[in-house]
Amino acid sequence: MKPAVVCADIGSVTQKHFGWCDDAGVEGRDPSTLAHHVANLLGAGRAVALGFECPLFVPLMKEESALTCARPGEGSRAWSARAGCVALTTGLVQVAWVLQEIRGDLAQPVGVFVAWEDFIRAAPSLLIWEAFVSGGRKGGNHVSDARLAVEAFVTSLPDPRMANAVTCTSQVYSLVGAALLRTGWSSDLSLLGQSCLVIKV
């Protein structure tokens, strides 16, 4: 069965810079409605691919001069540039909060994955992926940006690995892996070194 695809555009809630939607047209403008919606989908037995529009992992380069270089595939929109840094730092707390709320809403535990091949073998389960929406490809508002990312992920099916836009040859530090550990979804420390799918609009 095709997974439900959901994405959140990360940003300030108080300034109304947060928005999310799914592939069925359901949408919202705050993290709590996102978390409850994803939990309801999982509770109903659906597999869910949940994206966040912020950097979810960063490269750990060997050369100190390259520590803040763009990830391969980012082009001029590096994770360490101004917009990337703002999204990353905002995402650090919002991603962890949403994951914590989803887990708290579930009556029964489900598996969570950052690798597509692991995700498709377990159901219902949760996949975390990174959305990349920037520049002239952005929509008119934050829900629109989330919708564009959802549409890109849906287009990439049945195997979104073929559309993965960022592949690091170096080791990585997984920020979403840290969030999954912090919120009790997993105790697998290897998540800290795993990248996730990046779907570019």
Describe the structure.
- By secondary structure, this protein is α/β, with parallel strands linked by helices.
- It has one domain (4-200).
- The chain has five helices and nine strands; from the N terminus they run βββαββαβαβαβαβ.
- Strands 1, 2, 3, 4, 6, 7 and 9 form a seven-stranded mixed β-sheet that branches. Strands 5-8 form a two-stranded antiparallel ribbon.
- Strand 2 and strand 3 (27-28) form a beta hairpin.
- The radius of gyration is 16 Å and the shape is globular.
- The two termini are 24 Å apart.
Q: What's this model, at a glance?
A:
The chain is an alpha/beta fold and 201 residues long.
Domains counted in the coordinates: how many?
Answer: 1
Give the C-alpha Rg. Answer: 16 Å
**Number of DSSP-assigned strands:** 9
Strand content: 15-25%
Query: Which bin fits the share of residues in helices?
Result: 25-40%
Specify the overall morphology: globular
Task: Report the uncertain regions.
Answer: none
Helical run tally: 5
| N- and C-termini, Cα separation | 24 Å
Helix/strand order: EEEHEEHEHEHEHE
The chain-level structural class is: alpha/beta
Instruction: Specify the biggest β-sheet.
Output: 7 strands, mixed
Output mean pLDDT. Answer: 92
